[in-house]
């Protein structure tokens, strides 16, 4: 039988050729099928039929030949498994599509809907299988590697410099051994992981970790310590680029200096460092306040740093905006409202040289409107008010009351972070997470959600990718993510790679262990330790992240973009570090951070204009604030101020004095939290006594969402169904001396839970 193995191996290697037939035929058939919707273009039917038939046959042959390739050649790993399963599923659905098409054409089915649905599913499966196939041949980052910020970060100059240094040394120190190994592992990561990782174990060889490197592959060991000539790995990378056995393949052979570095590593015993390898650039954790440039003739610290930046970029200072634009910008940024015409006139007429700084202080002192405006920023950042029907708990527990109070009191940011991470009453919703209905991916368990939320919102690091496998965009590993999530777990967590258990338990650890130990017996103790570790001044990442978010909020673009990926390079590192350090020096005062940015000349520059969108993304040079759209809240408030209220108000006093009215309804609680009321009637009653004397008049103001019937002393007085309208009623004749009773039957309409309330 072995004499015929080459035939099966040959047929298996036809798989890459065959897969293009179902891709082309079925996708084109699907597009043409879309053109026939509504009974149009019946002439296409015959062509579609043959494309579906031939596409299905080629899908079956592709799946069969792919299976032969898998069994006859050296392919293994999760990526290969997933590609194979989806390829087989594509072939199965292609057969189902053919059968449904035949039944439809024979009038056994009333219309083409079932067939079209099956064809759509087939094309979706085909697309995913094709993507996984390209990941196998070209690497998992083949598409994303060309995105801005995802370019290959490996620098061959490091290899050359390290080789020169080691050649000059009579012996290699332990530190140099570590550096040599880390550089070799970086070479493996950038050149070999596409075929030899945990996800794709071609030839059963894994070069992603120490165990895999020294275990070797199906042909035996690839490293013989101290003997590069006997090491299969060195032999393969040293072959001619035209040799069939050369590694890496596909024209991506190693450079001469890279081969020499690997040889030197093997010659010196193939030492494996205990240090973590950093494939991707990673921001330093420590934070030092940069010295302000003395040569810049500007008073404001931010302007000194921007002045130095402009000098490096050969940019002249742009013009600043006039008073009318400034007052509008300041109002919208701090309290989210437009200034009244009288305020604009007074501000523009003022001759006070400090009037802009004084306006900023006045607006920051408007605690109510400041809190109302910035609450939406924090709601988005902390994912507050996230609810829906797909969750067991009705959604994330809201932290609105705690958040509102924190902003209104201008609570120090370190205290806010500590209360979010180690919750007090009212703030526990941030890390509590969402319990989804049904079976969920291991990366979506509530403990992992807590790690993801803290990582993304507060630290600017993407934990989500590393919750399923080692990250493709950062140095974060699956083991680190599970260690972080274990802080929030009351039992040991087993590592799952792409939802498959690995049989390995996670060790409790923070993402940045150099800041301190977070191990403890109970979850509560671990949360307390974590909260204290996170807010240390040494954790520059926490304070750079919030400073960067505030800069983006006020200037239109962050110093680092995207905001959630703080390992990306800043366009001015000194500016970001100075703002973060100054924020710490202020006692973690959020209003101070806003004031520091807004009082600068930099904030007051005219909007910068860029010809291409790419100039704002990957090739960004700061020239001034960007033009920003109004938020939905700012827009609705502006329309309400200038034209008429967009939303009916709960209370309104034409004299401008604050009222204490608020809508009330029966309190409804589910899953230990207040929830929106269900539809239906609710009844309200209030009794009171009137003294034995005449009253001049008695009137009632009432509005009920959605409708009501009002009774006084058992007598029906009025009813209404327009909650936007306040009914004013004279009830003087209905009252009596002694005990009186007011009753309201309120109706909440709708098919699902929704807001309701009585305003009386």
Question: How would you characterize this protein structure?
Answer:
This protein is of the alpha+beta class and 760 residues long. It is 44% helix and 8% strand. It has 5 domains: 2-146; 156-267, no CATH class; 301-365 and 570-617, no CATH class; 373-534, no CATH class; 669-759, Galactose-binding domain-like (Jelly Rolls), CATH 2.60.120.260. The protein is built from 27 helices and 11 strands. A 4-stranded antiparallel sheet has the order 5-10-7-8, with no helix packed on it. Strands 9-6-11 form a 3-stranded antiparallel sheet, with no helix packed on it. The N and C termini lie far apart (91 Å). Residues 149-154 and 388-392 have low confidence and may be disordered.
Structural classification: alpha+beta
Which stretches of 5+ consecutive residues score pLDDT under 50? 149-154, 388-392
In DSSP terms (H or I, runs of 4 or more residues), the helix count works out at: 27
Q: How large is the share of residues in beta strands?
A: 5-15%
Mean pLDDT: 86
Number of β-strand runs? 11
Major sheet size, sense and barrel closure:
4 strands, antiparallel
- The quaternary structure here is single chain
In spatial order, strands of the major sheet run 5-10-7-8
Overall geometry comes to globular
Whole-number count of domains: 5
Work out the helicity level. 40-55%
User: What is the C-alpha radius of gyration, as a whole number of Å?
Assistant: 34 Å
Distance between the termini: 91 Å
């Amino acid at each position: 039988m072995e004499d015929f193995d080459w035939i099966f191996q040959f047929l298996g290697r036809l798989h890459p050729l065959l897969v293009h037939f179902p891709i082309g035929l079925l996708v084109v058939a699907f597009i043409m099928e879309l053109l026939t919707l509504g009974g149009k273009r019946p002439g296409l039917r015959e062509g579609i039929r043959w494309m579906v038939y031939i596409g299905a046959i080629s899908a079956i042959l592709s799946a069969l030949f792919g299976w032969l390739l898998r069994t006859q050649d050296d392919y293994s790993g999760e990526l290969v498994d997933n590609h194979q399963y989806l390829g087989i599923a594509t072939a199965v659905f292609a057969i189902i599509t053919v059968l449904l098409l035949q039944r439809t054409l024979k009038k056994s089915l009333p219309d083409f809907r079932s067939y079209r649905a099956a064809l759509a599913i087939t094309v979706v499966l085909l697309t995913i299988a094709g993507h996984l196939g390209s990941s196998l041949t070209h690497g998992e980052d083949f598409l994303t590697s060309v995105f801005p910020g995802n370019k290959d970060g490996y620098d061959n100059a490091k290899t050359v410099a390290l080789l020169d240094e080691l050649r000059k040394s009579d012996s290699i120190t332990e530190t140099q051994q570590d550096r040599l190994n880390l550089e070799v592992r970086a070479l493996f990561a950038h050149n070999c992981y596409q075929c030899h990782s945990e996800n794709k174990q071609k030839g059963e060889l894994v070069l992603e970790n120490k165990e895999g490197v020294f275990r070797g592959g199906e042909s035996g060991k690839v490293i013989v310590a101290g003997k590069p000539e006997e090491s299969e790995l060195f032999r393969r990378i040293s072959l001619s680029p035209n040799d069939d056995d050369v590694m890496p393949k596909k024209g991506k052979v190693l450079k001469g200096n890279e081969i020499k570095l690997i040889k030197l590593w093997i010659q010196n015993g193939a030492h494996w460092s205990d240090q973590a390898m950093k494939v991707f650039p990673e921001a330093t954790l420590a934070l030092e306040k940069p010295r302000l440039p003395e040569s810049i003739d500007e008073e404001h610290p931010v302007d000194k740093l921007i002045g130095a930046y402009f000098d490096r970029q050969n940019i002249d200072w742009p013009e600043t905006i006039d008073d009318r634009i400034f007052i509008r910008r300041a109002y919208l940024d701090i309290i989210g409202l437009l200034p009244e015409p009288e305020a604009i006139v007074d501000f523009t007429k003022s001759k006070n040289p400090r009037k802009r700084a004084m306006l900023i202080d006045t607006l920051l002192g408007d605690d109510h409107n400041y809190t109302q405006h910035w609450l939406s920023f924090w709601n988005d950042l902390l994912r507050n008010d996230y609810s829906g029907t797909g969750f067991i708990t009705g959604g994330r527990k809201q932290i609105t009351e705690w958040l509102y109070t924190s902003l209104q009191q201008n609570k120090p940011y370190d205290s806010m972070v500590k209360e979010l991470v180690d919750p007090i009453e009212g703030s526990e919703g941030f890390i509590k997470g969402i319990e989804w209905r049904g079976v969920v991916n291991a990366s979506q368990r509530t403990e992992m959600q807590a790690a993801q939320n803290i990582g993304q919102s507060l630290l600017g690091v993407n934990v989500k990718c590393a919750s399923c496998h080692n990250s493709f965009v950062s140095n974060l590993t699956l083991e680190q993510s599970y260690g972080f999530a274990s802080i929030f777990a009351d039992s040991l967590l087993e590592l799952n790679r792409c939802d498959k258990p690995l049989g390995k338990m996670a060790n409790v650890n923070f993402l940045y262990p150099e800041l301190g130990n977070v191990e403890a017996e109970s979850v509560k103790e671990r949360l307390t330790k974590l909260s204290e570790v996170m807010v240390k001044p040494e954790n520059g990442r926490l304070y750079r992240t919030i400073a960067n978010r505030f800069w983006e909020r006020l200037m239109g673009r962050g110093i680092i973009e995207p905001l959630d990926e703080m390992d990306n390079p800043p366009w001015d590192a000194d500016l970001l570090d100075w703002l973060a350090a100054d924020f710490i020096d202020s006692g973690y005062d959020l209003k101070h951070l806003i004031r520091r940015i807004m009082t600068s000349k930099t904030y007051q520059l005219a909007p910068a204009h860029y010809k291409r969108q790419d100039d704002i993304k990957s090739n960004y040079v700061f020239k001034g604030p960007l033009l920003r759209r109004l938020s939905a809240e700012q827009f609705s408030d502006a329309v309400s101020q200038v034209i008429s209220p967009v939303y009916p108000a709960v209370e309104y006093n034409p004299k401008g004095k604050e009222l204490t009215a608020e809508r009330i309804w029966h309190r409804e609680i589910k899953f230990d939290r207040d929830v929106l009321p269900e539809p239906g009637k609710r009844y309200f009653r209030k009794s009171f006594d009137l003294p034995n004397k005449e009253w001049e008049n008695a009137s009632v103001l009432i509005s009920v969402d959605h409708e009501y019937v009002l009774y006084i002393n058992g007598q029906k007085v009025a009813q209404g169904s327009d909650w936007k309208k306040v009914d004013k009623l004279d009830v003087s004749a209905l009252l009596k001396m002694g005990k009186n009773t007011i009753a309201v039957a309120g109706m909440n309409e709708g098919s699902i839970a929704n807001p309701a309330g009585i305003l009386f």
